[in-house]
From TrEMBL:
Name of the protein in question: HAUS augmin-like complex subunit 3 N-terminal domain-containing protein
One Pfam family hit: HAUS-augmin3
GO CC terms, sorted: microtubule; spindle
Entry superkingdom: Eukaryota
Family: Belongs to the HAUS3 family.
Keyword hit for Cell cycle: yes
Domain HAUS augmin-like complex subunit 3 N-terminal: 22-213
UniProt main location, coarse: cytoplasm
GO process annotations (BP): cell division
Source lineage: Eukaryota, Metazoa, Ecdysozoa, Arthropoda, Hexapoda
């Protein structure tokens, strides 16, 4: 009694078990179930996911059958010749190709992201270098101006020294006319001329006598 049930798992999948297997052998039904056992396989029974997808398509009015389905398949074949003759192997190859393309796209995006980061870092380094060069140029310009000012001051000092040397030399080599006695000179003027004379004398001794003046 249980041979048909045990020999074909399709009946178990349809909900038959030992408690109701007598139906398989009922008069008028046995030929039908024998035919079913020899012609129906698990691939002919939709899976739960397929049933769910069918119901979902029907709810969205995207389920086609009859002439409408034939028209849709004909249109699909025109847009993609040979698509209806694809086997499971062809579909698996296409899926693998799609995965490879996705991996390539992901690698490209990662590489592009690294390039963008490198570009940003280079731009930042270039900006820092430009700021450093600009700062160096400013400091160089300031140093040049300072050097020119010091050179100008040195020229003025040298000119003043020459003038002082000339005046000091004239004090020793030329007679002051008319001579002015000390008692005829105001005290402020006397002290000023005395200080000036001391400076002239020190300058003269440094320049001409090479003496060390304290």
């Amino acid at each position: 009694m249980g041979d048909l049930l045990k020999s074909n798992p399709i009946f178990t999948k349809l909900g038959f078990d030992e408690s109701n297997q007598w139906i398989l052998y009922a008069d008028g039904m046995q030929n039908f179930f024998n035919w079913m056992a020899n012609n129906i396989t698990e691939s002919n029974i939709p899976a739960d996911a397929e049933i769910y997808e069918e119901n979902n398509l029907k709810e969205r009015a995207q389920w086609f059958d009859g002439e409408e389905l034939e028209d849709m398949l004909e249109s699909l074949e025109e847009r993609h010749p040979g698509i209806l003759s694809y086997t499971d192997k062809d579909l698996n190859n296409m899926k693998n190709e799609i995965r490879e393309l996705e991996d390539m796209e992901r690698s490209y995006m990662q590489l592009n992201e690294k390039l963008e980061k490198t570009k940003a870092n280079l731009n930042r380094e270039i900006s820092d270098l430009e700021l450093s060069v600009h700062d160096t140029e400013n400091r160089l310009e300031q140093a040049t101006c300072s050097a020119m000012e010091k050179a100008k001051e040195l020229q003025e000092i040298q000119k003043n020294n020459l003038d002082l040397n000339a005046e000091l030399r004239s004090c020793f080599t030329e007679t002051q006319m008319p001579p002015l006695f000390i008692h005829e000179m105001p005290l402020d003027e006397y002290f000023t001329k005395s200080d000036l004379f001391q400076q002239y004398l020190k300058m003269y001794m440094k320049t001409n006598l090479k003496a060390k003046v304290q």
